User: What shape does this take?
Amino acid sequence: QVTNGQLDEAITECKKQLNVWGPRGIKLLTELYESAGKFEEALTFINAIVEREPGSILYQYTKGIILKRLGRFSEAKTLLEQAQANSPNNIERLGEMSDLYISLKQPEDAIKAMKLSIGLHPENKNIKFDMLRTLFDSGYKDEANNFCKQVTTPKEVVRGMVKGSIPIFGLGVSAPMTNDILNYFSTLEDDGS
Assistant: This one.
């Protein structure tokens, strides 16, 4: 485990190497600030970079993330939406946007970002249930239920319930229905999913 003293040393060294490391060093320094919990320092640093290179999607995005970590969601939204518009197929950005919309109590926008992310992750069967759990845990039970119906198949739901990936009783599934689901699950052929 890294101590705060070690993080401070790494921050100091990274600052010395910024000219040599370029954009990678900028990204590293902001990550080090975040790891040290020094979000205000990270914001001050990235503000200077954004002023110097206002057209950089990466730096706008980085500033948006820092603002999000500081709880300045409205400011973060503007920057993150700009970055997402310039690079719409970025999975990491879609995840951050989804989380941001949840923080802003905009579940409809979060769901749009989640659906885009699912489209980019068709091979990842758990991503749907991770997103479902995020909606559910954030208090959006109805939205989670509708989202589940829109993006999953009954077979995926059964497997998700049995494997514990999704909350069984939270989505209006009664105990008798749960028994029916478990019985149905036992009849399915194992296709490795």
Remarks:
- Residues 172-177 have pLDDT under 50 and may be disordered.
- DSSP finds ten helices and no strands in the chain.
- Residues 153 and 181 are 13 Å apart (CA to CA).
